[in-house]
Amino acid sequence: xxxxxxxxxxxxxxxxxxxxxxxxxxxxxxxxxxxxxxxxxxxxxxxxxxxxxxxxxxxxxxxxxxxxxxxxxxxxxxxxxxxxxxxxxxxxxxxxxxxxxxxxxxxxxxxxxxxxxxxxxxxxxxxxxxxxxxxxxxxxxxxxxxxxxxxxxxxxxxxxxxxxxxxxxxxxxxxxxxxxxx
Length: 182
Known about the structure:
single chain; about 40% helix; about 180 residues; three-stranded antiparallel sheet; de novo design (two linked rop proteins); 5 strands; two-stranded antiparallel sheet; about 20% strand; alpha+beta; 6 helices
């Protein structure tokens, strides 16, 4: 099995045991991604996010499809930062935290909004940020409706926003993120 247990391979696995301590009995390869060595850390970052934020052994077929697509696109270094952020946005949506309004309230590009893990997007009437929410510009929320059209400064704002969200979602440090220059 040793040759099959390499990064970014799709495996059919069988194991025996109960609880957290189990024994792997079979690992059959069903496919693989060939990720350039220069992009391996991005793949590891994806894996770390998933391990930290998802419930163990809970099937997520749609998220897995997005994961496979993202791994496939990692070979194109021109779009790596954008493809990673798209995946992160999709992961947030799968976790029940979409970066969109929960009400019929119209978003104004001139206003600032508050993103809360409990309540989603709401108008930020007070510019002071509490420990449970993150400020986001209305301009960025509107731009995310057509992510293809994001400007360079909006990609940077999105990166800062996503970093703040993941910092609040997990108390553990995302070690691979520290090594990346996203």
